[in-house]
Amino acid sequence: MGDEDWEAEIIKPHVSSCVPVFEKDRYSSGANGDTFNRTPASSSEMDDGPVRRDHFMRSGFAAERSLGNRDAGESNKRENTTTMGGFGVGKSFGNRGFSNNKFEEGDSSGFWRGYQDGNDSEASWTSRRGGRGSFRGCRGGFGLGSSNSEYEHGEGTQRTGGLFGSRRPTLGGAGNGDTYQRRSGSGSGRGGYKGFNEEVITGSGKNSLKSETEGGESGDTQAPKITYIPPPPPEDEDSIFAHYQTGINFDKYDTILVEVSGHDAPPAILTFEEAHLCQTLNNNIAKAGYTKLTPVQKYSIPIILAGRDLMACAQTGSGKTAAFLLPVLAHMMRDGITASRFKDLQEPECIIVAPTRELINQIYLEARKFSFGTCVRAVVIYGGTQFGHSVRQIVQGCNILCATPGRLMDIIGKEKIGLRQVKYLVLDEADRMLDMGFGPEMKKLISCPGMPSKEQRQTLLFSATFPEEIQRLAGEFLKSDYLFVAVGQVGGACKDVQQTIIQVGQYSKREKLVEILRNIGDERTMVFVETKKKADFIATFLCQEKISTTSIHGDREQREREQALGDFRCGKCPVLVATSVAARGLDIENVQHVINLDLPSTIDEYVHRIGRTGRCGNTGRAISFFDPESDNHLAQPLVKVLSDAQQDVPAWLEEIAFSTYVPGFSGSARGNVFSSVDTRKGKSTLNTAGFSSSQAPIPVDDESWD
Ligand SMILES: Nc1ncnc2c1ncn2[C@@H]1O[C@H](COP(=O)(O)OP(=O)(O)OP(=O)(O)O)[C@@H](O)[C@H]1O
User: Fold this and answer.
1) Structural domain boundaries, residue 404
2) Is ligand 1 within 6 A of the CB of residue 609?
3) Burial letters for 22-54: b for 16+ Cβ neighbours within 10 Å, e otherwise?
4) What single string gives the DSSP state of each residue in 457-478?
5) Which of 487, 522, 544 marks a domain boundary?
6) Is residue 589 helix, strand or coil?
7) What letter would DSSP give residue 652?
8) Residue of 472, 477, 439 lying closest to 167 (CA atoms)
9) pLDDT in tens, 582-597
10) Any idea what the CATH number is for the domain that residue 568 is in?
């Protein structure tokens, strides 16, 4: 989908938004004020008018719409809010007659079976509704006639769709493309791009490199000054090495087929000992509770240790982070990295980039864990936090820099980081990092002054999904003889996740969600929705239903996002409503359920979302609401994902897939089908994990990748 299509998608007839916004004072929140057990207030912020390029125009405004705490200065902004939305008028927010609900029997297997059976039609569900009057909170309502319609169209930034069709131009309006201006805050119409997940990149047409955090500091009064300093992670050893248990299916990883393509691939290793890591690293691995390698580790570790570039694709939750961290650290130890000193310009040996703040923080914590007791210092920097804080972290010494792309480019622009010493460049969620949203920034990164050429550095790309187009683009980043490791089906879903797809029309989604959540009880559940507004809306709705819920999305302030994640992690809020900002990489213990209240627009996103459960050999469940009005484009790839993961495929879904079958459909449209192989189509070998691959030489024409 090109830009024009994107335009067509997001410029819709006027639909009013009715996001309840809350005044801080009225919250009946928990200790941290971040849960949603609150009394709704109101806000004129809800009247967004026509849903257009909201985030192009309102990057600063966005913050005001988020729920929860905010800095004192910012909270003042909401005092004059007027009522626009709330609860109650909507016809679809009435009582549900659950008395006949078969799911109330408490038998979980029955519940799931029942759910599949009861999957049926919207009509059958609406007939179960009782007649309770709507909840009346404020003026407006959840179900204002058009009910969810605003969410079906609004905030198209959340949409993805293949390579260049899914996201907005990264440097919107920049003109020269050299300007990175983040969260300019004033809605001054500079244009720009509110990233699908997290970063705000706007272009003013000036040749400047300006941080979202700098507004106040640099005298740009239009930009809000971001003062948030994340609390330091606990320093005690127990916390550093805290981990959860591998699940009953961990050993089954060994049976997954692994494909290695590219020439002269080193053989896989079967044990950590075979990696010949130094004693400190081995100690850290043991303290982390790792006794056995996962398949992606068996293959990737020797490849990286051999100095080869790598594109690795392995199912969600199967240990990709350690697969790159351990060999990189081993190299650094071998090279005798000395503790970096306090310096104004730091020159890290390794840069790791990931698309979301929470994910990069998680990777940093893993890096800190595995480098414990060594001279290697890892640092994390990401948007939404005080820029000065990032600088202070870096100047104290930095061997491994973990960063989100926006903050990384800012810090490079401020000359706090020199790139000359970079030997390892890691892109986690690499397909996301190379797509339309972040691809241009990554290209800038590799062409920054001082950045060693791809021949001089080692580049490592990891993800659970690798669309063919992205694989082709990746050639620009990788040496021509890079190796490709595919554990299982490229882009396939984790088999430990029991997937259920049910047909639910948009007007029935909320009540069905409540039914499911009531049956789930306190088990940790992530509920994915398609837009930020809807995340707030659903979280608020669930709290009204007395289901303790929090939310995470790109319009929440970073402090709120971290608080939300913390509340979810510790079980204080067992339900987390999220946009795709939380779809990738997050490794949260005990997430037993994922619910796609809205299906994402691409199958890859679906695979990542459901991969928040069923991690590391544990089992999980994912249930997805399929709305035939809007999700038919996903039927075909869904059938493939389900059958590849040996899941039941509903007959109705097959029918839809068949009726919407597009011959030659290969993936650039919204419901893109993942790649099945290394796109170089070289000779490859299929092995079960643990057995070395044969090496198949493949001539690769470098030019064909550039
Ligand atoms: N060899 C191992 N033994 C035990 N636990 C492991 C091992 N490797 C990784 N883990 C644990 O498995 C969990 C998932 O790992 P990780 O987050 O790296 O998965 P991932 O493949 O990157 O997933 P995603 O695709 O969702 O990003 C983590 O808690 C990690 O500590």
Assistant:
1) 237-487
2) no
3) bbbeebebeebebbbbbbbbbbebbebeebbbb
4) SEEEEEES---HHHHHHHTTTS
5) 487
6) coil
7) H
8) 439
9) 999 999 999 999 999 9
10) 3.40.50.300
Query: How many whole angstroms separate alpha carbon 49 and alpha carbon 355?
Result: 30
Helix (H) / strand (E) element for 427: namely strand 424-428
275 lines ligand 1 (CB under 6 A): no
Query: Does the Cβ of 355 fall within 6 Å of ligand 1?
Result: no
Cβ–ligand 1 distance for 367 under 6 Å, the answer no
Reading the block at residue 480, the tokens are: 């021509």
Angle between helix axes 532-544 and 509-520 (nearest 10 degrees) is: 60
CA dist., res. 693 & res. 263, Å (int): 11
Residues 588 and 518 in one domain: yes
- The CA 360 to ligand 1 mean position distance, Å, reads 14
d(CA 551, CA 427): 27
CB atoms within 10 A of CB 15: 19
In this predicted model, what pLDDT tens digit does every residue of 542-590 receive, in sequence order? Answer: 999 999 999 999 999 999 999 999 999 999 999 999 999 999 999 999 9
Give residue-wise pLDDT tens across range 352-391: 999 999 999 999 999 999 999 999 999 999 999 999 999 9
Asked whether the ipTM of the predicted complex exceeds the cut of 0.90, the reply is: yes
Which residues of the chain register pLDDT less than 70?
1-223, 339-340, 661-677, 681-706
- 569 burial level (CB within 10 Å; 0-12, 13-18, 19+): middle
CA gyration radius, the chain: 24
Mark whether 522 and 611 lie in a shared domain. Answer: yes
Overall number of domains in the chain: 2
pTM of the model: 0.72
Residue from 197, 293, 320, 370 whose mutation best tests the ligand 1 pocket (most atoms within 8 A of CB): 320
What is the Cα–Cα distance from 688 to 510, expressed in whole angstroms? Answer: 43
Q: How far is the CA of 618 from the centre of ligand 1 (A)?
A: 11
